[in-house]
Amino acid sequence: MSIPSGYDEIVATYGNPKGCNGNASPAWEEANLVDFAPPYPFFYEGDTSNTAVTHFRVHRLVVPDLTEILQTVYNAARQLVKENDGDSFDTTYYDKRTLDVLAAHRCNLFSGSYNYRNKRGQDVPSDHAFGIAIDFDANHNAFGSQRGTLPDWFIKAFTDKGWEWGGQWSGADRDWMHFQRAQKY
Ligand SMILES: [Zn+2]
What is the pTM of this model? Predict the structure, then answer.
């Protein structure tokens, strides 16, 4: 499935979430939103109790990509462990160390997905309002011109699948935490 570009293609692909009185359409939500279970454990930004995020609420049409992308991220972390530690250990060791690497790079911090709201400072719906955008580690990847901290291999897993990364946007509009399954909107 190709990546929609621009508002009209986004609505044609994902439907229009707009309902009445500034709320999302319950029928659209019912027909399109699903709970995506990430392939490795995620946690909420700044949650010291370490409660795992069991699902991301997203549009059903982003699930196949997202499964593949986060598996690619996991595999990249595992590869880093093997490059660092060698390949003579057992699976349990690599399982644990891979999660350590994901945590060390803060690739396991979830900061939001579906949210029926407008784009920042604009009167048009955000990509989050379609359930097609996800934010990661907002504390260290804040909106603005200062470079966020998500590693290149995390970002590349998304952009290789045609997703747009907010860090690619221009100047002060950069949104380092943000990834969306849509272009140019
Ligand atoms: Zn976002």
Answer: 0.95
